[in-house]
TrEMBL record:
GO cellular component: plasma membrane
InterPro entries named among the record's database cross-references: Na+/solute_symporter_sf (IPR038770), Put_Na-Bile_cotransptr (IPR016833)
Keywords recorded for this protein, A-Z: Membrane, Transmembrane, Transmembrane helix
KW Transmembrane helix (keyword) present: yes
Source organism of this protein record: Stenotrophomonas panacihumi
Stated name of the protein: Bile acid:sodium symporter
Transmembrane parts of this sequence: 70-89, 101-121, 133-155, 167-185, 206-226, 232-255, 302-319
Keyword Cytoplasm: no
Length: 327
């Protein structure tokens, strides 16, 4: 009983997210200060992806690059299976969610995989870590192009979304260019970044909190909480739980059906089922209008906490099964 309570406990970052939303709801930034905050978030996002590029080891890329069949399977789960599952929710979602929240559910389904937590859970479960590094990083890079295109197909111009090609151009400039610059400079700054990995983790989280505060401030100024009923928020949580359960079940079945080993099944399950809050929030800022942004990022924020809890349980189960198999 105690272990289950520990798994369900909110981690400090989730508490910080909740505190940021509360602060934005009570004291939203307005006027000239909002414009300054908006510029500050753009700079913080660029710095975040610069550091992500500097962290990516070329040795890890070479070690995992040969597993092309595994990578294609993960990419298909991320960018094909999830959008299809999102579309299947449409008949029910229209009656339970506001239009912005439904766009947020579809945006969640179109996002790339996480990097850090996918690798961490793969390692915890005893899976193929180099393959997870390559797949998760590849997913993030391809998401720059694929996420706007998928959203263009799924929702068009709803929610104030920019044209897909325009969104790709902005995302390339704000996310991919700093990422590539960081990676190219890795021979000179990689050691410094690795030595400060624990500290720089808070840079990641601080950037997300800054973007969330500015996004929710704009949304609150546009009347977010007046337009979003509590039953709709509960419905989003229900959609997130159902989506993750169905996706993980299907992905596990696909991995086994395709004959992957246990070590390769593990990164397929984790990289294929996780969605990136760290990438999603900055991308949403580029792709959607400020007034709808707060509601659109709510589903990925809820999904983020749910996937951490569920994946921790699944990783521990894989680890126990691996120890029994090796005994």
């Amino acid at each position: 009983m105690k272990s289950w309570l520990a798994r369900l406990r909110l981690d400090p970052f989730t508490l910080a997210l909740l505190g940021t939303i509360t602060l934005a709801s009570l004291l939203p930034v307005r006027g000239g200060a909002a414009a300054v905050m908006d510029d500050a978030t753009d700079l913080a996002i660029a710095a975040l992806f610069f550091l992500h590029g500097a962290r990516l080891s070329r040795e890890a890329v070479r070690a995992g690059a040969l597993h092309w069949r595994l990578h294609l399977t993960i990419l298909a789960c991320t960018f094909v299976l999830y959008p299809l599952l999102g579309l299947l929710t449409k008949p029910l979602a229209h009656s339970l969610l506001t239009p912005e929240l439904f766009i947020g559910v579809l945006f969640l389904c179109a996002l790339p995989s996480t990097v850090q937590s996918s690798i961490a859970f793969t390692s915890m479960a005893g899976g193929n870590v180099p393959a997870a590094v390559v797949s998760a990083s590849l997913s993030s890079l391809l998401g720059v192009f694929l996420t706007p295109l998928i959203m263009g197909v799924l929702v068009g111009a709803q929610g104030g979304m920019a044209h897909p090609l325009e969104a790709i151009g902005k995302i390339l400039l704000q996310l991919l260019v700093p990422f590539v610059a960081g990676h190219l400079l890795r021979p000179w700054i990689g050691g410094w970044v690795e030595r400060r990995r624990a500290i720089l983790r808070y840079t990641d989280q601080g950037t997300i909190l800054l973007v969330v505060y500015t996004a929710f401030s704009a949304a609150v100024n546009e009347g977010l909480w007046h337009k979003t009923p509590v039953p709709a928020l509960l419905a989003v949580a229900g959609f997130a739980v159902t989506l993750l359960a169905v996706a993980m079940t299907l992905i596990t079945w696909i991995a086994r059906r395709l004959g992957f080993s246990r070590e390769d099944e593990i990164p397929i399950v984790f990289c294929g089922s996780k969605k990136s809050l760290a990438t999603g929030v900055p991308m949403a800022k580029v792709m959607f209008s400020a007034g709808s942004l707060g509601a659109i990022v709510l589903p990925i924020m809820i999904y983020h906490q749910i996937q951490l809890i569920v994946c921790a349980v699944v990783a521990q189960r894989y680890a126990r099964d691996g120890r029994r198999g090796g005994a």
